Amino acid sequence: MRRALAIAAVAILPLVNTTGARAAAEPDDRQAAFAAAAEEFKVPQSVLLGVSYLESRWDAHAGQPSNDAGFGPMHLTDAAAYTGSNHHDEGTEDPRGDESRPSAVPEQQAAPVEIPASLRTMEKAAQLTGESHERLRTDPAANIRGGAALLADYQKALGAPLSDEPGDWYGAVARYSGAEESEAAKFFADEVFATIEQGEQRVTDDGHRVTLDPVPGLGKVEKWLEKLGLRPPRRDGVECPPTISCEWIPAGYAELPNNNYGNHDLSNRPHNQKVDYIVIHDMEGYFRPSIGLVENPANRASWHYSLRSTDGHIAQHLKTKDVGWQAGNWYINAKSIGLEHEGFLAEGSTWYTEAMYRTSAKLVRYLAFRHGVPLDRAHIIGHDNVPGTLPTTVRGMHEDPGPFWDWAHYFKLLGKPLHPFGGPKAGSVMIRPDFATNKPYFYGCDRKNPEAACPPLPAGTVWLRTEPREDAPLIKDIGKHPTGESLYSVYDHSARASTGQRFAVAERQGDWTAIWYLGQKAWFHNPAAAPTAIPSMGLVVTPKPGLATVPVYGRAYPEQEAYPEGIPYQAVTPLQYTFSAGEKYTLSGTAATEYYRAVTFDASGHTVVRGKTKYLQIQFGHRVMFVKADDVRVTLAW
């Protein structure tokens, strides 16, 4: 299990795969595989390429599973071969993250749900092609054959012709989404056809150049979609942009025995509190059972939106005015919106579908605009970037969505690509390795052999070391591993910096750059010929003159004097980390000094306590943290 991996004291050699993908694109083997499969099963090549792009961007992912057990360029799913659970089951993190009302309600598991056909497409592909599951997982050409066979089978089942006209395949493409909702199937098909119209080209993760030539003026025969007989979604005033498929499936909210209630808190945001963060999660469970968890008020976790992997369909569970129990930090929960992205495997998932990336980015952009959330990595954060609330909670905080989430691609889809700012000697940098070619060493991808090395896989992180050399030890995280070393596990971010995060430069030596990280000088490989970071000038904080060290905090709670009578003071407790004179950390902005008192089912007594202490948010390690403005001096990172 992931939890065991994260705390196991195993000795792993510091091996690193730094060569990345092949330096130059190979001949068009992948292109030829698409052409051959299209010809064999009488599917227009543009349709096959368009569907594959929406699923995988034509990547093979070294035969590793996606977040809902999908494999290869056509994302053939084999969920029946795996077991999984929701990540809220694991570890010691309390999703609510508020010791003034700790979760005392036993968590009830959702009833088992039959694995839907959308997560078992490999079985049908094997029947249609005669290929084994192993080949469909690991051989990209076989996988493409399987996807083509499925499309042709869907087309025949509709009574539609095996036509050369892409528009005649609109219904089969919609069915390939696996959606049960008419709107979701339509939006998936529309995304595929928009991709075909505009064309695409890229080099895959294993070095194959693939091109989809644009097909302008593409028509769509929508009558075939109507024949699928899919159900309409329940809208109920969902807060989603009109360009994505979204339905309302409400979270449970009820009074429970012993003065308990679940599974979220009513609020009135943004009128009483501004939303400052959008938190990206990975369910580590598949879509329908995870929704079952959030529908049950006896469960101690909730979130605002769930996103399905195969087609990007979204279910909204909470109004954005209300507070979900999702991030393990009550301060962040009270000021954030949580998005859970479908994940089938309890361990070992290594990539996410393009369909889910696209709808997630459209939703986040919409929410960020509505609530004034900055589109940067200090406010669009992963669950793994949320700090612990107290020294005792740091170790148990979750680590999703993990190193294989492509933040650079995500921010490009958000319309805010991660660009450099400043010259080569800038005093601060943004981590931004080339995702396709950055393939660092990890272990933990194989559920049957969790200590085995992962195959070389694209990742958006860099390892941080104590010295500027490949065999130097990883830096330590005293909160995550109080008595041990950082791990090379995919589930341990103790010594990793992630794409989009900004850090102050401490030193440079040749191809190596050192940043200030968790009170240490942390080195990462950053050669000029293949940089893993870009200049990113901005403001930094450093201890005020005369202060040897400065405490850091996991929340920006008010001072004791701010609390009115009847509301218990929430102690302002530093975390176990400090930073010293001479160290610098990038400034993300001011943090509202607030505590949302909400410990009752009846929301009439809920109160926001506001203080006068000024806090600043900084990028202190892999997680964001806070310092008091009176403790630091703000300067430009020269």
Q: What would you say this structure looks like, in words?
A:
The protein is of the alpha+beta class and 638 residues long. Among the domains are: 29-82 and 114-226, Lysozyme, CATH 1.10.530; 542-636, no CATH class. Helix content is 21%, strand content 19%. Helix 2 (29-41) packs parallel to helix 6, helix 6 packs across helix 7 (170-176) and helix 7 (170-176) packs across helix 8 (182-198). The longest helix is centred in the N-terminal third of the chain and has 19 residues, at 140-158.
Features:
638 residues, alpha+beta, Lysozyme, 6-stranded mixed β-sheet, 13 helices, 21% helix, globular, disordered N terminus
Give a short synopsis of this structure:
With 638 residues, the chain is of the alpha+beta class.
Unreliable runs, pLDDT <50, ≥5 residues?
1-27, 104-108
What portion of residues belong to β-strands?
15-25%
Largest sheet: 6 strands, mixed
Number of strands: 30
Indicate the structural class: alpha+beta
Give the radius of gyration: 24 Å
Q: Which term fits the overall shape?
A: globular
Main sheet: strand order: 5-11-10-13-9-14
Kindly report the CATH topology of one domain.
Answer: Lysozyme
CATH class of one domain: Mainly Alpha
Helix content: 10-25%
Report the span from N to C terminus. 44 Å
